[in-house]
Request: fold
Amino acid sequence: MTNTNYGTIFKNGIFGENPVFRLALSLCPAVAVTSGVKNGFLMGVAVLFVMTMVNATVSLIRNFINPKVRIPSYMFIIATWVTVTDQVMAATQRAVYKDMGLYIMLIVAFAIVLSRAEMFASRNKLLPSIVDGASMGLGFLLALVLLGIFREFLGKGSLWGHQILVVDGKAVKPLLIMILPTGGFFAMGFMMGFLNWIDRKFFGGTGSGGGAH
Amino acid sequence: MHINWEHVLTIFIASALINNFVFSRYLGLCIFFGVTKRMETAVGMSFTFTAVMLVGAALNWLIYTYVMVPYQLGFLKIVIFIGVVAAFVQAADTMMKKMTPALYYKLGIYLALIVTNCIILAVPLINADEHYGLFESMALALGSGLGFSLALIIMASIREKLELADVPKSFQGLPISFVLTGLIALAFLGFSGMITL
Reply:
């Protein structure tokens, strides 16, 4: 890519190829940690950090890696940055870490991180790679926060832990099922279907987000 | 060494049904949705998966207990576990190709998919976090493997029927599969509270 257009890369990461809703990659954490906005946000930040750093590292050393061993090399780079994130999270966010420590560690197995390293960072210069990693991570973060808002509001009547739906001084929990595992799958399915519908109706797209599976 | 068989059995049943990886821990979803379009692939994947999980858990347990704990390398567990799993899967791939080409044709493609799968990695990580012994680790691996197989086979049989259903256009493919999984998860919720760990 000779003519690098940062705006295009950015839009691509957030809308065109949104990791969760469009590419349907890395779904496990998207369902697992979104029972609350805060958890979803922190997970998104962790992924954003890992993706940016991995893309930067891969881009910096892309000319020194023998193409035959590139995938294992990327795996070790990813594992290293995930370890860093894991240790920082464990030290600073103790309460949250107890719930989602396992999912933070499993960022290492995210298809999206490896695929961006392989498809973008290994062929581009440092700065575009950083922008690509950051915008993909941001797309992921947005998807997680969106799902988190949807589920926490319906499940607990609160947002970021603050009770919003209150009737006669009592907290209202409209649909408890939304914070259970079942609700995660429902929220994901309906959100994807809704976005496909918007895409077809207003943008003339094929509306086949996640249809690859 | 004293082994608490009751605890081993509890872990086995809990990991297969109550804490089913797909329906209550939400792991392995990529593969879960990827291979359940046809029954045949789902069954092939189940076999490969359970076998790799058992061997992977045993190898990682040995390394964790005899190398990482004595030298206090616990913080490196992510890097080491993924390396061990990747190396083992690559070795299995090569050996299968040489020794049993027929089996390799059937199951080879699943092996390639398994390397970066989160369940394969989650089992040793949970074992390490809970400080399980060898038999408890194996029970967790076997239970999770069978639980995952159960999930794959249930989902594959539903999706084969789904081909004939009239699904709204926006929901075709993945969205409707998610809703379906939600319904199965609701059924699996019935197992919770059967055993408390």
User: Anything to note?
Assistant: Chain B has one domain: 5-193.
